[in-house]
Amino acid sequence: MNHNHDDLDRALRQQVEHLDSTPLSLGDVQSRAKRILRRRRIAASVSAAAAVAVIAPFGVALANNQPDSAPPLQQPTGTTQSPTVTPSETPGTNAGEAPRYDIDLTPPAEGTTGAELGIPYWYDGQLNSPAGDVVSVPQPVYHPVFDTTIGQWAGITFDDQEGTTAWASFDPDGGELETSPTMADAVAVTPDGSSYAYIAKISPDGPGDPTWTLVKAGADPQTWDLGTTDSEAPGGGPMGILSDGTVVFEFESGKPMLADPDGRITALPGKYLKTVDATADGRIAVQTSYNDDGTSCWAVVDTGGKKLARTCDHALDEFSADGRYVMGSPSNADGLGASVVSILDAQTLKPAANFTVPRGAFIWLPMAWDGDTLLAQVWKQGTWTLEHLSLDGVLQQRSVRVQGDETTAPFQFGAGPLS
Hints:
Elements: H1 5-16, H2 26-45, E1 60-62, E2 100-103, E3 121-123, E4 126-128, E5 134-136, E6 142-147, E7 152-159, E8 164-170, E9 176-189, E10 195-202, E11 211-218, E12 222-227, E13 236-241, E14 247-251, E15 257-259, E16 265-267, E17 274-278, E18 284-290, E19 296-301, E20 307-311, E21 314-319, E22 325-330, E23 337-338, E24 340-345, E25 351-356, E26 361-364, E27 368-370, E28 373-380, E29 383-389, E30 396-403, E31 411-413
Parallel strand pairs: 2-25
Antiparallel strand pairs: 1-2, 3-4, 3-31, 4-5, 6-7, 7-8, 8-9, 9-10, 10-11, 11-12, 13-14, 14-15, 15-16, 17-18, 18-19, 19-20, 21-22, 22-24, 23-26, 24-25, 26-28, 27-28, 28-29, 29-30
């Protein structure tokens, strides 16, 4: 895919000018700029994806010589769950290697369906809860959360004309109640969904200018004042909420920070390019370097900065709700997605299962967790499908197929591994 160099240059300068004094490689520049462009494309045209057709679980074959693959998505309320297909594993040539599963995207028999989603999501003008509640919200809502303490939906919206993002809350009928400027990737949620965190520009109760504020909402709410910046859209956002209420976040500089319940904000010891997630017990997934060969290196560290595991084979993303697994994709992947993904053991960062899609298809990144199953949106030849990937390789396909271009995935999953 061709990218406009001026757009990349502008996006780069806006997002990485404050990182730190560490020199940036060309790979760093390209990766960050393309992530920015991808987020803006996502926000521009999710509603354009339409044309729904009935499909079903597909056959899954074990591919001994292929890498990672994609997760299947879930079914609308009221549909009948179809039988799953479990691949028979043929012993691999290399003892001890994780199984590698190939996804067959051939549409299955008409009328069969997959499983229900266990996390909140936005799709086709509607917010959907795991309980089956549906609220009509025409514009896409990114990282949607449902605040059980006040009975309201919230999430990130995108102003297509202004090119700005906002934190928005909605009433039970989908009406927008309140908005505040925010960042595109700015939501973290506890595994049980009781608390969530975001960063927004909030006006004081009395006189004074609005300041950027780290907000932990839901159960045990708290705020941390982050001050003002010269940028209208500083990079960063919350990456995880620890069991003691500490929020792991980035803001403007790109450095991982810890906001504790006593109101203190301290830096995570060490030098990192990016933080992507944190578990309740204090393990944090970070990027440590870009390499000359186009790959990158990643690690899981504790809150003291001690490296617990490291990999240069896989780029890391979210941990599963129980912290046992972490999403992985090739560390040299670029563009909109990957042809291979993995479920990694969070203790070792070695693959527990790998999945691959056919030639001409790709898996949209990022994915989402539903328990210990990965949810993935797969695109091939103008069609998106929503699928589940599990450790035993059982795949199920959602009952809808959505026609759309490769720059706009149709589903927006809830922030974090909600149950």
